[in-house]
Amino acid sequence: MALNIIDLIKGQLGPALISQAASQYGESESGISKAISGLLPAVVGGMANNAEKPTVLDAITGAAGSGMLSNLLGGTSNNSLITTVLTAIFGDKTAGVVNAISTYSGVSNSTSSSLLNMVTGATLGSVGKYAADNNIGASGITSLLNDQKGIVSSLLPAGLSLASLGIGNIFDEHEAETVKVTSYDQPKVEVNRGGNTNSHPAPSDSNNEGGSVWKWLLPLVLLALAAWFLWKQYGKKPEPATETTEISTIDSSMSTAKDTAVVMTPAKEVTDIDLNGKMIKGYANGMEASMISFLKSDGYKNAADDAALKDTWYNFDNVNFKINSATELEPGSEGQIKNLAEILKAYPDTKIKVGGYTDITGDAVQNKELSQKRADFIKAELAKLGVGSQVIEAKGYGSEFAKVPATASNDERAVDRKMAVRFTK
Known about the structure:
By secondary structure, the chain is α+β, with helices and mostly antiparallel strands.
């Protein structure tokens, strides 16, 4: 499978950088993220379409040792490599791209222009580093970029297209191809991409009787097929979705992540969970059920010390922060924090530790800061609910224990982005 350059570059444009950009440019994080989502495939597509130009190849190889990736936010505004590449791939349409992205994302034109430089720098730096690390020469870089042509358009977010960016013609320089549409009952029409049509006499039918039979038989066949399709689509009840809940075994005292995780795949179905006679709502076999089961078994009571507890973490399976935020939860997340507080109240001698984790993309230091703030936020919320004395520590680990590589898809890396708790003494 060909390398997806866009997934590689996303590793440099993580949540921490988006948050920094939003603060520096005075924009919302959602606007910055939306702008980047449109610029990234456009830039990669432009480079792919100009993969054989010496200026593009020289810029990529030159970026490998320039340190461009270490200062994407502040060092890309007047970079000659970036200016050269943008001229090579967009020409006089660069301003149109900036304006289209500004309109689409809601950020200002100046911010859109700065983000274009930043995304181009991330692309040059990422591809250049990949080529240098894997000893890939100019021809290999050209081949790598050419492999991206088939996926670029599909990666543009909804509401944005190459045409809306004003660069559709840049990506399609082939001569017009003729598509022929032939009908047995209408004249044959040739339609070319220029919009011209040429009529020709209909092909002769040596069997008029056979043609007349199909005129009434074909609609019946189509109706039968439509009925069969509808029955297949709606005649069966949908099966419940499933979700994986993982209890990780990671702690800051370990030199590497210790993989003795317990993985469960319960149906994502809310049910009543018995908390010593009080019923709380949660997922069957989810975080609450697993913690209560452990406490009822006297597992916590019989644990001699913290060392006996530190390897078992319970992931929140319904607590999610808004993108790049450490203080705003997605709707519905408060319920599980309240459930945790109820569990702690039911077992007042129990103590816990909160942990925050990110995937491997972005700046490691900033990822750790973000995860620390999120862990602190949950600890503070539990304090507001009256159980603060039972939360001994909140710690952000960032990407320290992330297992999924930066080149993996966003969905695949989601397993590393989580909040969790463990029991402690």
